[in-house]
TrEMBL record:
Lineage: Bacteria, Bacillati, Bacillota, Bacilli, Bacillales
Superkingdom of the source species: Bacteria
Any coiled-coil regions, as ranges: none
GO molecular function, one term: catalytic activity
Species of the source: Peribacillus glennii
Protein name: Amidase
InterPro entries linked: Amidase, Amidase_dom, AS_sf
UniProt similarity note: Belongs to the amidase family.
Occurrences of domain Amidase (ranges): 30-435
Length: 456
């Protein structure tokens, strides 16, 4: 089949791949082979993977191929090759979380999100790198495909790099502060961090259970919708999950939204090139018919940021306490200190932090009485040079803290090093559809999301 078309992973999206499969211009085994070949080509330089299960992926592709004729209609993610961050349980496949503590651990069950993707026909290629237990320390050796001397961000380092380097059509990651939004911006990708509770966390090693979000890196908003509609929804094992309608790509364009550009000093400390790209994006939205206004963040922002750190340290420490007491030396130096600090936080301080978060969520919700969406830079700078740190999550943290949905999309590339730059759009809780409407229209009018790293 593959000989009938000219294609490569550099140009494919999930939407493209689904069409090719549906039209029988490519088979599941041929599609998986394309991505295995791409992994073999660029992985030695990018180092995005913990493990690649080539034989397992090809066996699954062959089984799906044998059943295709029985289906009246192919599911949207049928035979789509994907990756998963190595804190997400995969039955029969190690889930080590980038830590010696979990060395050799093989779950006896899949995470809910993995099982859902399996049921949809998606094909897991393997596991991708993460900072230790998705925390803020111990970055892996993963490189940014746009410039190998720069970080891809974290903690979902490998998940973002794998998609940016076209080694997978999509990949699962998580966010506790900025670990979806920041790597997406650094790697020229699209990611939806949904409302807290829209995607199940069952079977995902927690960094901080009241802050954690699961999401997926893709190239386009159109692809994001396909993935999000599969992985979101209720889970009896995760009481935080919600039952809500699926999202759609509106054929009748939605241009009547008011976008509030955040002018708080917090978001003014940005690199000059990012600032110009954000300003250009604002003009683009305005030119498309969106109403633009300007507003400030809630006064409780600083206190809420401090509260987030208290909550995250406390919940991280609680989860790892038993293993930490057994042998603290198995944890990385950074995480050791993080856990020690978390263990010293008093219950009263933790509860006070959660009350501050509640107040901040309320104040954030009130902002959407004036606007439909907020807009900020996705990061203060492009991806920093070096791989010893994963960059600042400062611009993402408040919206993760509040549990509101955000959509990160690319809006340009730096002139000297060709590093991606992104914006994040923010909506009220459960208003993912507004993000999709605005982001989809923006990507119909621009081509930043279609750019490809030279390494590909």
């Amino acid at each position: 089949m593959l000989s009938l078309i000219k294609t490569s992973t550099s140009s494919l999206t999930i939407t493209d791949s689904h069409r090719l499969l549906r039209e029988k211009q490519i088979s599941p085994t041929e599609l998986v082979s394309l991505y295995i070949e791409q992994i073999e080509k660029v992985e030695p330089e990018v180092r995005a993977w913990v493990r690649v299960e080539k034989e397992q992926a090809m066996e699954r592709a062959k089984k799906l191929e044998d059943t295709m004729h029985q289906l009246d209609e192919l599911p949207p993610l049928f035979a789509i090759p994907y990756a998963a961050k190595d804190i997400i349980y995969t039955k029969g496949m190690p889930t080590e979380g980038g830590s010696k503590v979990n060395k050799g651990f093989v779950p006896d069950r899949d995470a809910k999100v993995i099982q859902t993707l399996c049921d949809s026909g998606a094909i897991l290629l393997g596991k991708t790198t993460t900072t230790e237990f998705a925390n803020w320390g111990g970055p892996p050796e993963t490189r940014n495909p746009w410039n190998l001397n720069h970080t891809p961000g974290g903690s979902s380092s490998g998940s973002a790099a794998a998609v940016a380097a076209r080694m997978a059509l999509m990949s699962l990651g998580t966010q506790t502060a900025g670990s979806l939004s920041r790597p997406a911006a650094y790697n020229g990708l699209t990611v939806l961090k949904a409302t807290y509770g829209r995607v199940s966390k069952t079977g995902v090693i927690p960094a901080s259970w009241s802050l954690d979000h699961v999401g997926a890196f893709t190239r386009t908003v159109e692809d994001t919708v396909l993935v999000y509609n599969e992985i979101s929804g209720p889970d009896p094992e995760d009481p935080c999950t919600w039952t809500l309608p699926k999202q759609v790509l509106h054929t009748q364009e939605k241009r009547d939204y008011t976008i509030g550009v955040v002018i708080n000093e917090y978001f003014q400390a940005t690199d000059s090139e990012i600032r110009r790209s954000v300003e250009d994006a604002i003009k683009q939205f305005e030119g498309m018919g969106f109403k633009i206004t300007y507003l400030d963040m809630p006064k409780s922002l600083e206190a809420a940021n401090a509260a987030q750190h208290i909550v995250m340290k406390s919940e991280t420490a609680h989860y790892h306490t038993d293993e930490f007491i057994k042998d603290a030396s198995r944890f990385g130096v950074y995480l050791q200190e993080f856990i020690r600090e978390g263990l010293q936080i008093k219950a009263n301080d933790y509860l006070k932090a959660q009350r501050i978060r509640t107040l901040f969520r309320q104040e954030m919700s009130e902002m959407f009485n004036e606007v439909d969406l907020l807009l900020t830079p996705a990061t203060p700078t492009p991806a920093p040079e070096g791989i010893l740190a994963t960059g600042s999550p400062a611009f993402n943290l408040p919206f993760t803290n509040a549990g509101v949905p955000t959509l990160t999309i690319p809006v340009g590339y730096t002139k000297t090093k060709n590093l991606p730059m992104g914006i994040q759009l923010i909506a009220a809780p459960m208003e993912e559809q507004k993000l999709i409407d605005a982001g989809y229209l923006f990507q119909k009018e621009t081509d930043w999301h279609l750019k490809t790293p030279e390494i590909v």
